[in-house]
Amino acid sequence: MKQLLLVFIGGGFGSALRFLFGKFLNNSENGIPYGTFLANILGSLFIGLILGYAAKNEALTENHTLLLATGFCGGFTTFSTFAYENHVFLKSGDFTSFAFYTIASFVVGFLAVFAGIYIVK
């Protein structure tokens, strides 16, 4: 039960922060979802830092990892919003934004995880 509560608390903080990123950074004029992109990239960096640090130092307990990686990063990042935003690009015929957003999200996201792991080594 304690572990579920840790994930719940971490996820709540992550989700609230992602909401703020979207509210202030997503551009309603041209539809570019900067807030979602930034949340997903920072979340990827954070999870790389957290899990890389946990693997290297064995300083984080399973509960720390559940709170920070599963809870916070899980709530902060969002695949469902990313998928919906891509649907909107495709529906509007904006194939350039779709391609750029999708490729950049995957490439930069993976690089952010690797960078996080590399930083803590």
Please, could you describe this protein's structure?
It is a single chain. Helix 1 packs antiparallel against helix 2 (34-57), helix 1 (2-25) runs parallel beside helix 3 (62-76) and helix 2 (34-57) packs parallel to helix 5 (95-120). The protein contains five helices and no strands. Helices cover 84% and strands 0% of the residues. The chain has one domain. The chain has 121 residues and is mostly helical. The longest helix is centred in the last third of the chain and has 26 residues, at 95-120. It is globular.
Q: Determine the mean pLDDT.
A: 95
Beta-strand residue fraction: under 5%
Query: Strand tally, please?
Result: 0
Q: Into how many domains do the coordinates divide?
A: 1
Helix content: over 70%
Order of helices and strands: HHHHH
Number of helices: 5
**Residue windows where pLDDT falls under 50 for at least 5 positions:** none
Return Rg in Å: 16 Å
Biggest sheet statistics:
none
- By oligomeric state, this entry counts as single chain
Distance between the termini: 33 Å
Query: What structural class do the secondary elements suggest?
Result: mainly alpha
Envelope shape:
globular
